[in-house]
Design a protein that fits this description.
By secondary structure, this protein is of the alpha+beta class. The protein is built from nine helices and 18 strands. It has two domains: 248 residues, Aminopeptidase (3-Layer(aba) Sandwich), CATH 3.40.630; 110 residues, Alpha-Beta Plaits (2-Layer Sandwich), CATH 3.30.70. It binds zinc ion. Zinc ion binds next to helix 3.
């Protein structure tokens, strides 16, 4: 049904255009041009502060419910000057950058499906296409979309990996930043006059339960920064961490447990603590018997896939769409090892995943 060579070509063109978060203007121009060739207009909405373009929102009139299709335009670092290589049915980078299949495989799949629909005059529901920006730095683009834009009956974010996996739930995430303020002193002359912030931080972290907490909950301290020289008792250390859970009460408890350890260690040593926590996004769970799950399952079965319904460990724009009232699932088009320089795209899965998307769309228009 779809044009496989054109799909792969589009993908390679997309990844060759640099588009780190907040620098998506160039790739947005490419996508806008491709949409215009199909007679599809797009408007720019919710440009993030510091960004060079906004989210691209388009509408394609059809019959039946309004289906949202989403992918994000930005990629993670190292993501400049990506050179896609193709070897034995797999596309990868040259090893110095990510590939950017997250999420340009999703962008290419949506473009190819739109082209196929138009060329072959296939039945489809009303479609809303939202290409977001700055997803990778905290779903910033999607957060800038107002409820008045998000009116679809349901949605699909093409931001997963495996093509037979349907992610119907995702956790909440809270980030925390802690600054421990001790007291500087000469390490050789007056060590007793100092309060060693590194020591305080170490004790707090060592006492924390982090990593996998339970089936639904994870926690991490990912950044530690502080200290100036070996002969100075360090006066300040900054820690950055996060916790995630599918259960919001568990998440609150985990964050409290982590901050309690920081408070205790500070008290023990007479250090001060500056603490900020930020809710990055809220969890969601789309019911297995909801229309969008049924639709995707039907499509997967038609494509002879064995569907797996799974919760996701990470947040995505789907968290925002769900929070704003559009039940949205995450599905994949064959990308693997996301966010690493070993990221790759399995071409066979990429093609099948794109065919699957087309099947789902036709299904949504009444089969
Ligand atoms: Zn992504």
């Amino acid at each position: 049904m779809i044009n496989k060579r054109r799909l792969v070509k589009t993908f390679k063109e997309l990844v060759r255009i640099d588009s780190l978060s907040l620098r998506e203007a160039q790739v947005a121009r490419y996508v806008r041009r491709e949409l215009r060739k199909l007679g599809i207009r797009s408007v720019q909405v919710g440009k993030p502060r510091g960004g060079d373009t906004g989210n691209m929102v388009s509408f394609v009139s059809g019959q039946g419910p309004l289906l949202l299709l989403n992918a994000h335009l930005d990629t993670v670092s190292p993501g400049r000057n990506i050179k896609p290589r193709e070897k034995r049915g797999v596309i990868c980078s040259d090893g110095t950058t990510v590939l950017g299949a997250d999420n340009k495989a999703g962008v290419a799949a949506i473009l190819e499906v739109l082209r196929t629909i138009k060329e072959q005059k296939l039945p489809h529901p009303h479609l809303q296409i939202i290409f977001t920006v700055a997803e990778e730095i905290g779903l910033v683009g999607a957060k800038n979309l107002s409820r008045s834009v998000l009116k679809a009956a349901y949605g699909l974010a093409l931001d997963g990996g495996q093509i037979d996996k349907l992610l119907n739930a995702a956790p909440s995430q809270i980030n925390l930043t802690a600054t421990i303020i001790g007291k500087a002193a000469h390490a050789g002359v007056h060590p007793e006059a100092g309060v060693n912030a590194i020591r305080v931080a170490s004790e707090a972290i060592a006492a924390m339960k982090i990593g996998r907490i339970d089936r639904e909950t994870t926690a991490n301290i990912g950044v530690i920064r502080g200290g100036k020289a070996t002969n100075i008792i360090p006066a300040e250390v900054e820690l950055r961490g996060e916790a995630r859970s599918h259960d919001r009460a568990k998440l609150r408890r985990q964050v409290k447990a982590m901050t309690d350890q920081l408070r205790k260690a500070c008290r023990r040593h007479g250090a001060r603590l500056r603490l900020t926590t930020e809710q990055m996004y809220r969890s969601f769970a789309v019911r297995p018997d909801s229309p969008i799950v049924k639709l995707v399952l039907t499509g997967m079965k038609k494509e002879r896939l064995r569907p797996q319904i799974k919760p996701s460990g990470g947040g995505s724009d789907a968290n925002i769409f769900n929070a704003r009232g559009v039940p949205t699932l995450v599905i994949g088009v064959g990308a693997r090892q996301l966010h690493t320089t070993g990221e790759e795209l399995v071409i066979r899965d990429f093609i099948r995943g794109t065919e699957l998307l087309l099947t789902i769309i036709r299904e949504a228009a009444g089969g």
